[in-house]
Amino acid sequence: MNNDIERVLYSKEELNRRMDELAKQLTAEYKDQRPLIISVMTGAVLFTVDMIKRMDIMAKLDFIDVSSYYGGTSSTGKVKLVQDLKSDVRDRSILIMEDIVDTGHTLKYLIDLLKERGAKSVKVCTLLDKPEGRQVEVKADYVGFNVPNEFLVGYGLDYQGYYRNLPYVGILKPAVYEKD
Ligand code: IMP
Ligand code: MG
User: Fold this and answer.
1) Coiled-coil annotation: which residues (predicted)?
2) Which atom, in ligand 1's list, is nearest to the CA of 135?
3) Alpha helix locations (H) across 2-104?
4) CATH topology of domain 12-147
5) What is the distance in A from the centroid of ligand 2 to the CA of 179?
6) Cα gap 70→155, rounded to integer Å
7) Element housing 110 (H / E)
């Protein structure tokens, strides 16, 4: 698996250090709000569990699965709800946890959905942000790292379902997806 990686962008240690900082900010913001933390499956699950362990707050956790990728390395722009939340979001403070924001379609879909359902506030924490990829205007409130416009894998991010379990974030060798 490691042989398919061209370059490591963020090591396990760098990820941990940045998560310590982000969690401190989120703890301060949410300490009196009892937020509902929504983790966007499957990519953001690793980031979410590592973050919530660092946050000293009362919070609930739920999951939502949306898909826009259909296996390739670029987004189709269409987002579909694959698995809904268990929770009612009405009047709740919501914190969405994402792995990466690229075109912005996924995030826009989620924010619109949660607001439509009556959420009191919706904020977003993403580990990675690829600003060059943006097709719709949407902004994350908390960003781990701004990343270049390359296809990344690891620490939750996948290519065709694989590489999520790499402990770091790296650039996938183009040869891996060019041959598919
Ligand atoms: P968006 O809708 O284009 O912003 O895409 C967001 C989703 O696409 C993320 O939640 C990821 O699952 C996936 N994605 C975007 N960029 C990458 C990447 O570089 N590697 C792996 N998955 C990605
Ligand atoms: Mg995702």
Assistant:
1) 5-32
2) 3
3) 12-30, 45-52
4) Rossmann fold (3.40.50)
5) 23
6) 20
7) helix 105-116
Q: What would the pLDDT profile of 60-110 be if each residue is shown by its tens digit? A: 999 999 988 655 666 777 899 999 999 999 999 999 999 999 999 999 999
3-state DSSP assignment of residue 107 = helix
Give the separation between CA 55 and CA 26, rounded to whole angstroms. 7
Look up residue 131 and give its two tokens: 């600003």
Which residues lie near ion ligand 2 (Cβ < 5 Å)? Answer: 43
Of 32, 50, 102, 112, which is the active-site residue?
102
Dump pLDDT digits (tens) for 13-58.
999 999 999 999 999 999 999 999 999 999 999 999 999 999 999 9
Exposed / middle / buried, residue 75 (Cβ in 10 Å: 0-12, 13-18, 19+): middle
Compute the distance between CA of residue 147 and CA of residue 28 in angstroms, rounded to an integer. Answer: 26
Mutational pocket test of ligand 1: of 38, 79, 99, the residue with most ligand atoms within 8 Å of the beta carbon:
99
Conformation bin of residue 91: beta by default, left when phi > 0, alpha when psi is -120 to 50: left
pTM for the whole structure: 0.95
